[in-house]
Design goal:
About 80% of the residues lie in helices and about 0% in strands. The chain is mainly α. It is built from 6 helices and no strands. The protein folds into 2 domains: about 55 residues, no CATH class; about 50 residues, no CATH class.
Length: about 100
Amino acid sequence: MMQLTGGIIVIIAFAAIIRKYETRTVLLVAGALMCFIGGVMGQFMDSFVKTMIHGSLVPTICTVMGFAFVMKHTECDQHLVHALSGLISKSHAIIIPLAMLVTW
């Protein structure tokens, strides 16, 4: 029963992210809901804080957020998507492997 409930929460969280809800908030709420249902609500904040102050994680998160901001500000992300989607749309025979390769 717990696996089914967890699966439903994951599917709802996935749908909320697709509908452009704030990703971090959706994941935080989904995690809190899973901890509440599992009866370990006290461990929710402990594990969140422990993970967020991990020495190797903070520089990585800051670097990735900075890179993403620069890419969005300079609109390089849109140019990359257009360039790669143009490449994929011209290759109808191998469109699925190319889409997997581009996303990877």
